[in-house]
Amino acid sequence: MTFHALTSANHLHRSASYLLYLNPYKLFPESVPRVKTVPHWFINLFCLFHHPELQQIFTFYVNTSTKIGKMWLRECRSSRKVNVTVQFLNVDNTPDYLGRDCLMAITQLRKGLFEAFRGKIYYGWIILAACTVMFFASGPGQSHTFSIFIQSLNQELGIEQAGIASAYGFATLFAALMLPRLGRLVDRFGSFRMFLAVGTLLGFACVGFGLVSNVYWLGASFASLRFFGQGALMMLCATLVAQWFQQKRGFAMGIMAMGFAASIAAHPALSQWLLDTLGWRDAWLGLGVISWAIILPLTLLFVHNKPEQVGLLPDGKTPEPEEDSEAAQADQSAEQGLTRYEAIRTPTFWVIAFGLFTPAMLITSLFFFQKEVLISQGQPETLAATVFVVTGVMMAASLPIVGWILDRIRTRYVFSGFHILLSATLVMINFVDGLPSALIYGAMFGLCNAFSITFFGYIWAHYFGRKHIGSIQGVGQMIGVFGASLGPLPMGFAYDIFGSYHQILFILALLPISAAALSFFLQPPLSESEENNASASAS
C-alpha cells in the first residue's frame, strides 16, 4: 500500500519528536485507522512508526518554493524508519492552498516581466510609470473629490457644512499623526507589501464612505480616506521613486506628480458622473472598485522595493568592478542615509519641515478661498472658474521642467526661489482686476503647485539618503498634512474680523519670505558627494 500524503511546506516543522504534519482534510486509506478531528499538527511519528500497516512506502507531494519542506524531508530520510518517495511539484494544486498558489504564479509573472523589460530599458522607468498611475489613484482621498459630495451629505444626512468641515479637519489631522508609523512600516516590510495593504484598505475605505449614516461615521470615513489616499498612497509612491532614482530624482518626481494633476482634472468629473448615474453611495463603491483595479494589478505585476534587490543601481548605472574582498563586498552592500532619530536632531530637518509646512498651509488656503477672494474683488464666478483651469494646465505643463531644474541647480537655491514665488503669488491675487491679471495669477499659482508637490517627494531623500527614507518622509509628510489641515483657518478668521482678505494675504506672504531666507543656507547632513555616490555604495 502506498499512502499519498498531500501536504504543504507551511505545515512542516522541525521538533524534538519529529512531528509529522498532515492535511486533516485529506481522507486516509480505508485500511488505516481514521484519525478524529484534531489539529493537523498533532499527528506525530509515534503513531506512524507503531502501526504495522503504516510501515510502508510513503509518497509526499511537496511544494519546492520553501526550504522548510526540504529540510523536513531530510529529517524523515535520516530516521530510516520510513521509506520516503518524494515527488516535487512546482505548484501544490490542493484546493486549500489555491489562493497562495495564485500569488506564487503572480510572483513568477512579475519576475518574468522584470526580466523582459530589464534588457530593453532601465526598470526604474517602469516603476515611475506605475507610481504615476497610482498617484492618480489617490484621488478618492483628495479634497477635489470630496467637494463633489458635500451637497449630497448635507441633504441626505442633515449634516451642516460646519459639521462636515470639522469632521474633515480632524480626520486630516488624525491621518497626519499616523504617517510616521506608516513610514517605519515601509522601512521594515518594503514598498511592495505596503502597496498591497494600502491599496486594499483604500478600496474598503471608499466602500465604507458609501455607508455613512451619521457625523461620527463620516469622521471615521474621512480619516480612512485621507490616511490611505492623500497620505499613505502618495508617500509610498514618492518613497519608491526616490529609491529607484538619484541623479534624475527631480525629473522623476516631476513626472510622477503629473498623476496628481491628472487626478485634479479627472476625479471631479468622474465623481460627478458616478453621482448622477448611481447616486452618491454607489458612486463611492465605484470609486473603490476603480482604486482596486488600478493599484493592486500594478503592484502585483511591476513593483520591486529597491534596484539593489534585483541587481540594479539607481538611475540605471552600471556597477563598477570592485576588488574581490570582504571589505569591498561590505561597502557594496551598505546603504547610505541617516536614521529618523539622527535626521530630526539636525537643523536641516527643521528648516525643510518649515519649508514644506508653509506651502502646504498657504496653497490649501488659496485653493479653499480663491473663489471668494476673487468675487470679493468684484470679479465674476466664471473668471474664478477660469483661474482653476489655468492653474491645473500650468501645473501639469511645468512639472517636467521643475524636475529638470532640480537635477541641474542646487536644491537650496531652487527651494528658496520657490518660496519667493509663493509669496509673490499671495500678493498677486490682491491685484486681480480682469482676465489678463487673472491668467498671470493662475499661471503663478500652478507653478507653485508644481514645485510644492515635486519637493514633497524629492527633498527628504536628497538631504538624508535612501536607507531610512520611509520613516523620515513619514514624519515630513505628517508636518505637511498638518499644515494643510490648518490652512483655511487664518483667512477664515481674518475675514470674520476685518471683512476682507487683503490684510491677511499680505501678512501670510511674509511666511514664505522667512522660509526662503532659511532655505538659502541649507547644508546637507550628508555631503553632496556622498549622496551622489550612494548608489555606488549600495547593492
Structural features:
disordered N terminus; 539 residues; mainly alpha; 3-stranded parallel β-sheet; 68% helix; Growth Hormone, Chain: A; single chain; disordered C terminus
Give your account of this protein's structure.
- The relative contact order is 0.11.
- α1 (45-50) links the parallel β1 (2-6) and β2 (57-63).
- The model is unreliable at 1-65, 80-98, 322-334 and 534-539 (pLDDT under 50).
- Helices cover 68% and strands 4% of the residues.
- It is mostly helical.
Number of domains: 3
The computed structural class is mainly alpha
> What is the spatial order of strands in the main beta sheet?
1-2-3
Question: Major sheet, described briefly?
Answer: 3 strands, parallel
- The CATH superfamily of the largest domain is MFS general substrate transporter like domains
Number of strands: 3
Cα-based radius of gyration, to the nearest Å: 28 Å
| Number of continuous helical runs | 22
The H-and-E topology, N to C, reads as EHEHEHHHHHHHHHHHHHHHHHHHH
Overall pLDDT: 76
The top level CATH class name of the largest domain: Mainly Alpha
Helical amount among residues, as a percent range?
Answer: 55-70%
Kindly report how far apart the N and C termini lie: 53 Å
Name given to the CATH architecture of the largest domain:
Up-down Bundle
Described by the principal axes of the CA atoms, the overall outline is globular
Residues in β-strands, percent: under 5%
Which regions have little confidence, pLDDT < 50, spanning 5+ residues? 1-65, 80-98, 322-334, 534-539
What fold name goes in the CATH topology slot of the largest domain?
A: Growth Hormone, Chain: A
